[in-house]
Amino acid sequence: MTHPLRQHIEEIIPLTDEEFAYILSFFQPITKRKHQYLLQEGEIANKEYWVVNGCVKSYFIEDSGKEHILQFAMENWWITDYESFVKQQPSKTAIDCIEDCELLYITYENRDKLTASMHKMERFWAKKSKMGRIALQKRIVSLLQNSAKERYDQLLEQYPTLFQRVPKKMIAAYLGVSRETLSRLNS
């Protein structure tokens, strides 16, 4: 059976067995339980995670205690605090597990080494980065332009399984609405 990370990478670039073995040597597996942190606010994000199994969230909490969810990451998704990871400065967000998770991570240093030594992986991450920017732009436009109902319907259409895996209060925090509003949208 083909390794899931290899399948993921090969959606963008073809690999030989030797190339994939080399790539995999830069990654470490890790398991985390529900509610465990991958990153806490103020820490430097020195790892980028790829979700093998499970679901995590990236978020920040206002001084008032209100949570804002920036991203969910499920199977085959990448997550870190990218500003902290790239600039190697303290994180403004936290990342924790919504479910028990199996992940692979690559350190900042190893990602640098891998991309420097293997042009294919530099292309892979460039493509993933471009796709991430497109998704972020669409999310921002949706938040600014669409009604709460339209944002809810878009999320449900794009990621229907998310609604079975994530509590409603987290869906509300992602959409930027109250739980009460979410209940009205859901009915």
What does this structure look like?
This is Crp/Fnr family transcriptional regulator. This protein is an alpha+beta fold and 187 residues long. The protein has a domain of 115 residues: Jelly Rolls, CATH 2.60.120. Strands 1-8-3-6 form a 4-stranded antiparallel beta sheet. Helix 8 crosses helix 9. The longest helix is centred in the last third of the chain and has 27 residues. The relative contact order is 0.16. The mean pLDDT is 93.
* SSE sequence, one letter per element: HHEEEEEEHEEHHHHHH
Task: Report the portion of residues in β strands.
Answer: 15-25%
Fourth-tier CATH superfamily name of the domain at 4-118: Jelly Rolls
Instruction: Write the CATH architecture name of the domain at 4-118.
Output: Sandwich
CATH class of the domain at 4-118: Mainly Beta
Uncertain residue ranges:
none
Q: What Rg do the Cα atoms give?
A: 17 Å
Instruction: Look up the CATH topology of the domain at 4-118.
Output: Jelly Rolls
InterPro entries: cNMP-bd_dom, cNMP-bd_dom_sf, RmlC-like_jellyroll
Domain Cyclic nucleotide-binding: 33-113
Organism: Tenacibaculum singaporense
Protein name: Crp/Fnr family transcriptional regulator
